[in-house]
Amino acid sequence: MNKNLFKISPGFEDIMPAEYRELVHDGPYGKNLGVSDLGTFKELLEEHPLCAGCGLALSLRLILASLPNPEDTIIVGSTGCSSLAFPQVGVHNIHSLFGNQNAVASGLKRALKLRFPEKTKDVVAIAGDGATADIGLDMVMHSWFRRENIATIMLDNEAYANTGGQESGMSPQGTVLYMAPKGKKFPKISLPEIAREVGCAYVAVGSPAQPRPLEKMVRRTILVAREIGPTYLQVFCPCPTNYKFKPQETVAKIKQREKEGTFQTREYITLEAQKLLTKLEEGKK
Amino acid sequence: MIEQKIVEPEYLFFQADREEVFITGSEALKEAIKRANVDMAISYPITPQSESMHLVGDLYVEGYVREYFRGENEFAVMSAVAGASMGGVRVFTATGGPGTLRAFEIFPAWAGARVPVVCAFMTRGVNSPLSIQPDTIEMAFMLHTGIVMFHAETAQDLYDMLLKAFVIAEKPDVHIPVGVFADGFFVTHTREKVKIDPAEIKLPPYNPYSSPVPVMDMENVPVRHMRDPFVMKSNFISYAAHASWQQEILAAAERARKHIHKYLGGLVETENEEAEILIIASGTAVSQSREAIALACQEGLNAGLVKIKSIRPFPEEEIRKLTQKAKAVIVPEFNRVGWLCKEIKSVVEDNTKVVGGPRVFGGMTMPPHLILAEIRRCSQ
Questions:
Q1: B214, A23: Cβ pair inside 8 Å?
Q2: What InterPro entries does the entry give (chain A) (predicted)?
C-alpha cells in the first residue's frame, strides 16, 4: 500500500475521527514493528467489544502487532467472537460467512496474484475453532490440499463462545458445555497433526501467555505461506466467560493447562520451510 | 494470454459482424466467456452444468481466462468466487439444481457484499428421489436473494445475456451479482443457430475501483475501521444500518432496469400483445408457447405472447399494463410450484383471469398441445 493513499488532505485533519488520525500518524504500516514495540505505536485493533479477560482479544492484538507486512496484508475472518473485533481492525478484512474463510481466502489470494504479480500481498485467514475445525473444516483442508499460499490461524477458545458456550470439536474431552450436557464424548481434534500430515509447510501451536514466541510463530506462519505453501497456527485463547473463570486468570489458565500436559506449544517445520526460515531469520540478524 | 482487441460493449453487442454457428447452449456459454475478458473461473461438476465449465477450462488452456480451478463443493466455490471478486478481478462460475441449493447461503451474502459476480445456473430438479432432469424450481428459491436474475429462452439468449450480465453487474450504480438462468438440457444440450461475435474482440476489463465498496487489496484506505461494529448490537442505529443496507441492495437491482432496457431491449419481449388471450412465460416455456400460439392460429384462435427476460428486477409495470385488456393470462411453467404465476398474479389488477399452468416437472417436456388446450378453454 502506498501510504500517500490514506494521508488526510490538507484542511480535513480536524474532521477526521481521532483513531484515523492516529493510524495515519502513528500506525504500524511500513515500519517493521513488533510485539516489543507495543505501546509506542497506534495498534491496528482500535479497542474491542469482547469480554474482559478474553484470551482471543489478547491473541488478536498480539497477532496484529506481529504481522510482517501490515500495509499489504488482507485478513479473512469468519463468524464468531473475532468477527466482533474485526470491523475495528485497520487492515482490509473480509467477513463472508461462517466457516468459508479459507475458500474466500483462496479466491482472494489468487485474485491478488493476478493483479499484483510483482508485489507481496499476504492473505491470512483468522477464525475461531468452530469455524476452522468444525463447520469450515472441509474448506480449511481443501485449501491445504490445493497448496494455496495462505496462512491459517485458529483462535482456539475451545467452544462456540459467541453463541453462548457450546461444545466444539476443539473442546477437551469430558468438558460440560451446552450441547454436551453429559460432557464431551470425544477428544480435542488434533488439527496441528492433521495439518502436518496433509502437507502444511509450517505448523505451530502457541498462546498469548508467551508473546515473543507467539510473534515468531505468526511471522513464520505468514512468511512460509507467502513463499512455499499453506501454513497453520493454532493459538490457545481460553474463554473466561464460557469456561467460567475470573478474567484476570486467563494467562494463569494457559500455564496451568501446560503444567497438566493438556496444552503443548509445538512447531512442525518441513525441511524446505526450515531452509527458508533460516535464510530469512539469519538475514534479519 | 491470447491477444484480443478490447472493444466497447455497445460495439460487441450491437455492431460487430456476427457469424452464425450451430452449437449447444454449453458451447454458447463458452463463446460468451471467450469474449468476456474473464480473469478467473472456478468450477465444480454437476449435471447438466458440468460441460459448460469443462469448456471454460478449455478457454483457460487456450489463454482466454487467466486463472481456473476446481473447488471442493458449490458453497466453497461460490465463497472463493466472492473472495476473488472482493480482490478485484472479474470472476465467473456456473452451477445448477442441487448445486444451487448447496451454495444457497452465499447468494444473499454476494448481494450484500456488492460483488459483481456473474453466475450461470443450468436449472434442474432438486427433489428426492434423485433427479438430474430439467426443472426450474431452483429459481423459486433464488427470487429473494437480492441478485439480478435473467432467464434465457435459447442458446442465443444465453450467449447475449452472459456478456451483457458482466456489463450490467459491474455498473457502479448496480454492482450486485447477476445470475443467468438457462433450462438444463433443453438449452444446454441441444444445438441451435447462434450468432456470435468475432473471437478477436472482447469486453473492456473490470475496473475494481468503480466498486461502491472498498476493494480488499490494501491499495485503498482501510475504511472499514469503525469504533462500534453493529454486527450484533441490539439498538436502533444497528437495525437502521442493516435495514438501509438491505434497501440499498434492492435499489441497486431497481437501478439495473435502465441498463437492462439499454442492453437487453427491455425486461420483456412481446408478440401480438393486443390479443385477448396472453401467454406469459420465461425460459424454454416461451418456445413451447410460441408453438402453441401457431397451432391456435391455425384454428382461428388469437393469442399473444409475453416473454419475460428479467425475473429480478421483475417487470411489474410492463405486466400490469400488458394484461389490462386481456381476457385471460396463461402461465406455463417447468416447475411444480408455479413461482412465475405467483409473481404475475401479484401484479395483474384482476388476477382471477390468470391461469396457473400448464405445469410440467420432474424432467417432463411441455407439449404445445397442453398450452393449446388452455388457449381453447380460455377462448370459450
A1: no
A2: PorB-like, THDP-binding, TPP_enzyme_TPP-bd
The pLDDT of residue B176 is: 98
- Residue pair B132/B367 in contact (Cβ under 8 Å)? The answer is no
Question: How far A264 CA lies from chain B's nearest CA (Å)?
Answer: 32
Best of A110, A123, A140 to mutate (most B CBs within 10 Å, chain B): A110
Q: How far is B132 from chain A, CA to nearest CA, in Å?
A: 25
CA distance A162 to A242: 9
CB-based contact, B242 to chain A, within 8 Å:
no
CA torsion B21-B22-B27-B32 (nearest 10°) is: 30
At B282, list the grid cell.
420465461
The domains of chain B, with CATH numbers, are 5-210 (3.40.50.970), 270-379 (3.40.50.920)
pLDDT digits (tens, 9 = 90+) for A165-217: 999 999 999 999 999 999 999 999 999 999 999 999 999 999 999 999 999 99
ipTM of predicted complex: 0.96
Q: What percent of chain A has pLDDT over 90?
A: 86
Superfamily of domain A35-284: Thiamin diphosphate (ThDP)-binding fold, Pyr/PP domains (3.40.50.970)
pTM for the whole thing?
0.96
Chain B CB contacts of A90 under 8 Å are 222, 225
The domain spans of chain A are 35-284
